[in-house]
Amino acid sequence: MSDGTKATTGAEAVAGPGVRFSLLGPVRAWRDGEPVPAGSPQQRALLALLLLREGRTATAAELIDGIWGDEPPSQALAALRTYASRLRKTLGADVLVSESGGYAIRPEREALDLAVAQQLAAEAEAARAAGDRCGARTLLARAIGLWEGEALASVPGPYAQSQRARLEEWLLQLTETRLDLDLEVGCHAEAVAELTALTAAHPLRERLRELLMLALYRCGRQAEALAVYADTRRLLADELGVDPRPELSRLQQRILAADTELAQPVETPPSAVPAVVRPAQLPASVPDFTGRATFVHELGDRLAHAETSVMAVSALAGIGGVGKTTLAVHVAHAARPHFPDGQLYVDLQGAGARPAEPETVLGSFLRALGTPDTAIPDSLDDRAALYRSTLDGRRVLVLLDNARDASQVRPLLPGTPGCAALVTARTRMVGLAGAHLVDLDVMSPEEALQLFTRIVGEERVAAEREASLDVVGACGFLPLAIRIAAARLAARRTWTVSVLAAKLADERRRLDELQAGDLAVKATFELGYGQLEPAQARAFRLLGLADGPDVSLAAAAAVLDLPLYDAEDLLEALVDTSLLESASPGRYRYHDLVRLYARACAERDEQPTGERESALSRLLDFYLATAAGVYALERPGDRLVDHLEPVGRAGLEFTDRHDAQDWLYREAGPLLACVRQSAGAGTVRRAADLLWAARDLGESGANAREYESTAQAVRTAAHALGDERTEGRALLNLADVHSTSGRFGRAKREAEQAGVLATAAGDLLTSCWALNALAIMAIYQNHHHEGEGHLTRAIAGFRKLDDQPGEASALCNLSRIRLATGHTTSAVSLAQQGIRVYDKMGHHLRGANGRYALGLALAEDGRHEAASAQLHQALDVFRDTRQRLWEGMTLFRMAEVDLAAHRPAQAATKAEQALTVLRGIGGEWRRGNVLSVLGSALHEVGQDGRAQVCWHEALAIFEEADAPQAEEVRRLMAARTAAA
């Protein structure tokens, strides 16, 4: 299903103790979880009729009429009693009861799948009415999932026939509603394939056509959406002699007009609670307070209901400069009407060298509350007790700003209902029992630009909007940094925004530029850094050296050269001080400006100076060792792992390939950043090897662009260093990613260069894979004789290396060349040889590539069912291993097989699925092939308008690429025109 919810089957729905029944599929019964026989068709008809009566008694005459209709057998009543007796023995005398000359079954609601479906549908309707669209969608998916084929399957009789039709119509209604919700939550691309299949199965159902038009429009396929309308109008006129319903016509007009309201609705964020000005101890709220609407609403709501709680405490934590005090003061001012007895404020100086003493603060608070000096006791405990007694019966808000830790805050908290406290600190106040903890992050880009505009002026920002975005981006969306940068610009009328942006573009000078008057970002960070213990300070400095967006705990342990648990203690301590963020369990990241500060500290303080390079080298070794292990687990027997640079540090070890894949894709950003950062003398060879070991990141299409830029950086560095081996390996990876993206000309050139360099460097492994890559390009470019020559040499090289998976890959590619040259039997045999090698070595992923090749060969040989079976096996593996490119191409090939086997509706569904999977990967050439097949399938199911749109788009792609497939599309279009 399109929302990814695992459907509950009818059998699962009725599992459990007692007697349970299923009607949404074959009529079945279970007792205590074990299936019991439902008997002959007529006996099942009786059971179904009684269950559908929802507990109401059915007379014998009603039952006979429902089972046999107008022509019952002469002994119908006796037969009815026999069926009832058998059901009573099977189900139990307490289940089927005799009443007033008739029978009844009254199961519990959860014991009948139809009742469960009705309950889920009702809950979905309520959830939708309450605005919970995702919840409603999930509930409907569960209800639909209870069907196991046709309801009341194979049950005879007029009653069953009418109920079957009713239930089928209800299922369609539920499906339409769920698809409507799919579109509401933005899953329009996923819905297209299902809607295409449903409109083919129910061509006169206009609501489905309407949903398909909207889904296509939201996917940017306006021409296809309009073609659906044209197809519908023609079909309704031909079949029924009527026009489309008004809703469909209005939708067509809105699509023609490119109506922006057809886009996804955007929920507006809750508005900020307006500030109310009232004299008190609170500092003045800044006049240009911007954004933070969610936090303002959340904190304001807690303060508004403080009267009903023992004592509401909210503690805001975040890095210096993130705007904790500004937000707290703003919220406190807005909440003043709820605290008519006053507001107390103190700066606890928690980030400084001498934090405020709680005794001193309590003395000040007591005086503000009207306590004379002579009545204020000396000890902390006595002052705290008097403070709480003084607040009893009052409604007072206490703002404790810049706290050091929970022990400093506890004595200052009110203890009675009606009072509340707001606390700000750089550390998370996990020690405050019952406190509502708020982690304050940087502003959103929109909020940041709004703050910058309010200080600088709309005219200057409007004139240089892009430069303004660069400025707030360089500030890392940190409010203090934005305020400083804007204040500098506002004070220099001769500066343009571009001048400031240029100054901030230099990372080494950025922190120095972010100071104005007594405000400075660096000084704010220095306060936090100065409070760290030596081991924490070292961790802060070294972890800031890595370029990745975040770092895992295991990678951090490698950088610090520490055991995992010791590293975790240090990192969590840095999180508590807000100098480091915990992105998710076991992952950490710096704010951009904090990272720059950490690197400046490393340059200034790290001794010996070589420790910085050693830390990054340990990180590279960790990634290479782990990625090599993942590669070996995914590709058993592959010889690459024997030809990688040695490492000085062990990596993580996995026994489950799914866990290994999870690690690789989770670490994609940091890993590729490490490769780029290591593209220098002394480390570039390990960087290139890490890139190769992580090739799934490029081949799957999931990280293709970042992988490509990283490979290019390694290639450039290796070329500058004169390292032919490394440059050849980088070029080979570039060739692979260009092939994945459909840039076959570039892929061929880089594979040729990789082969030349590998030969010169004596790198036989790279040379063999370069030949294999060249053969793949030859397949795509119809240079079959050339490709066979490449593969013959590659096979010889792989055999010399005893690289059986490499040899199997070449055999499978040779199978495709033989297929293209008309040698189908040879193609089948070669693919089977490759599969045998892969299966022997447990090579699941490449075995799927072999089955893909075998499926193509079997399809060409006319063995469509066998071809579908092979391709389906390959599809399961590609999905399991997250190979999106291969998943999409396999769906495309399955669509081709379905089309050849005269299953156009299934072909259209798979082609639509292929388009969805290949979105953003695979290149336009592959997309053109899928569109061509989709057009043919749509033509076969009578949707000629959409077919023409698909063919036109495919033709434009092929003509742009000067691809030979253009002629085939022209032939299809010409044949359609001639038939019309």
Explain what the structure shows.
A hairpin with a 2-residue loop joins strand 12 and strand 13. The protein contains 46 helices and 16 strands. The chain is globular and about 110 Å long. It starts with 9 loop residues before the first helix and ends with a helix. The protein has a five-stranded parallel beta sheet with strand order 8-9-10-7-11, with helices on both faces. Strands 1-2-3 form a three-stranded antiparallel beta sheet. A three-stranded antiparallel beta sheet has the order 4-6-5. Helix 5 packs antiparallel against helix 6, helix 25 (553-560) packs across helix 26 (564-576) and helix 30 (668-677) runs parallel beside helix 33 (704-721).
Quickly list its features:
three-stranded antiparallel beta sheet, globular, alpha/beta, single chain
